[in-house]
Amino acid sequence: MSGLPTVVVPVFNGLDALDGCLAALERTLPAGTNVLLADDASSDPRIAPLLAGFAARSRLAVRVVTRARNLGFPGNCNAAFAETGDADLVLLNSDTVVTTGWLQRLAACAAADPRIATVTPWSNNAEICSFPRFCEDNPPPDDPEAIAEAAAGLDAAAVELPTAVGFCMVVRRAALRALGGFDAATFGRGYGEENDFCLRAAAMGWRNVLCPQAYVVHLGGASFGPLGLAPNGDNLARLLARWPDYNERVARFILADPLALLRQRLNERIEHLARSGPQRDLFG
């Protein structure tokens, strides 16, 4: 669908989470939205028929690409960047559950400033963009649509982030052209490549922002779990070698917590909507 970013879902195994992710895409996206499912040579033989079946049934414009060999997450994403033409795109982990209007709200946020390179939504599990508790892995909410509805009504501009959070992020095509893609040579099978991309973007005057109006559930673990990767170790050392002040930038953001007022306002909107409708336990 013209006017909306292409949704790119990098896939490597994780069948159950992937099935839920695809169902949520079908439920929430306008008919004809472009979706690229990039299978990085999954070893689970059930993945290929799941993707093919979804593409055959979907009302979305779904394309499935299967790598001949495993490229690692950065390499798979770079190939997908080249396979999606001139469109802006959203990288969406396969362990996410999107909510009504998520893509339109992210796109509107990106469109507000041509210097925005990446946009991240709220999530239960999104580090500096986590809600309701900051920098925590909150459990998936019982009613994510209620949180998404409350977020959609926030009257707030995008907020600067030190880096996007890679579970779900808009990547503007103009920024890709200016910066190149992820550094697969340095970050190998994955972890740290999106942080490096965002830091390169900021160094060239681009912005990485939170979209206060969008909310996406992140289950966590399914994307890198099958690879046995953890958010530490060699790739973190490589990131810090290139950007020695990275930890300081993030620490300053956490200390200042510029999202605190927005989280409070979002909580207040959730409570208001709960009072004006059926009583719901949103957070389990």
Automatic annotation (TrEMBL):
Pfam family, one: Glycos_transf_2
Residues in coiled coil: none
Gene3D superfamilies according to UniProt: Spore Coat Polysaccharide Biosynthesis Protein SpsA, Chain A
Keyword tags: Glycosyltransferase, Transferase
Domain of life of the native organism: Bacteria
Gene Ontology terms for molecular function: glycosyltransferase activity
Cleavable signal peptide: none
Keyword Transcription: no
Residue ranges of every copy of the Glycosyltransferase 2-like domain listed in the record: 6-179
Similarity-based family: Belongs to the glycosyltransferase 2 family.
Protein name, per record: Glycosyltransferase 2-like domain-containing protein
Organism listed in the record: Arenimonas composti TR7-09 = DSM 18010
Classification of source organism: Bacteria, Pseudomonadati, Pseudomonadota, Gammaproteobacteria, Lysobacterales
